[in-house]
């Protein structure tokens, strides 16, 4: 079985992770105690990917929960699926990082690494054939044309409240339209201000593959100026015929767009304003950081913004590449 060991770290990671396990347990028909109460044999198919079968027919998530303070862990434990996790897999410190990156990276966090690795090793050893991120790596290889441009914009459709579903016709064209809408993106930037380098769209539910391909092609043809022309066939689609619970069909969107530079520009402006006054700097230097690290990080981020801009403006004119080749040969 191609098992996945699931790691969730920090407050955000654990809150998203707790929700993830609620959703995936619901899809597999597993209740908060870890017992199977499904209505179809399909739900038990490949259940070993995410769950370990323990004694008494109970299913235990292959999850490792990590944090520097016990607060978030306690709320996960007291949440709806808190009792499903293996108690040994909670790894936490006592002090917290206090929103201080240096504390998490150099001092408090570094002390926790060994015990986390130990739990990861135990989980990995109980697997038959560990998947080792192969699916995500395949996605990343196809989505990242240049090593530094690896910041994705995720999106989801339909993003409607349960009550307003009756006013919407859930169809492939509707999903495709919603999916590319900036309101459905989970990054604070507008994709219309940049161009897509690559896109991956994953549809779920019973639908025609032909229609999915037609709709995606339609989006590309109508909005060709928003896709870089020097990467042909830069949209990948996948369809899984089992819909998420409570919906007939859904779509997940992952886009690598040059518009994400807006986000970095905003951070850079805020950083420069604070760094000029050396605000809060002593908290970081006190934990072992150096002032030069901040200067390096700033120039690194400015380089990243310029790189995104460079590829946004790039065109596929053959002449340019021929000239470059001649110069190199000379």
From TrEMBL:
Compartment(s) where it occurs, according to its Swiss-Prot or TrEMBL record: Cytoplasm, Cytoskeleton
Cofactor: Mg(2+)
GO biological process: microtubule-based process
A GO term from the CC aspect: microtubule
Annotated InterPro entries: Beta-tubulin_BS, Beta_tubulin, Tub_FtsZ_C, Tubulin, Tubulin/FtsZ-like_C, Tubulin/FtsZ_2-layer-sand-dom, Tubulin/FtsZ_GTPase_sf, Tubulin_C
GO function terms (MF aspect): GTP binding; GTPase activity; structural constituent of cytoskeleton
UniProt cross-references to Pfam families, sorted A to Z: Tubulin, Tubulin_C
CDD domains assigned: beta_tubulin
Family listed: Belongs to the tubulin family.
PANTHER family xrefs: OS01G0282866 PROTEIN
Protein name, UniProt field: Tubulin beta chain-like isoform X2
Organism: Salvelinus namaycush (Lake trout)
Gene: LOC120039631
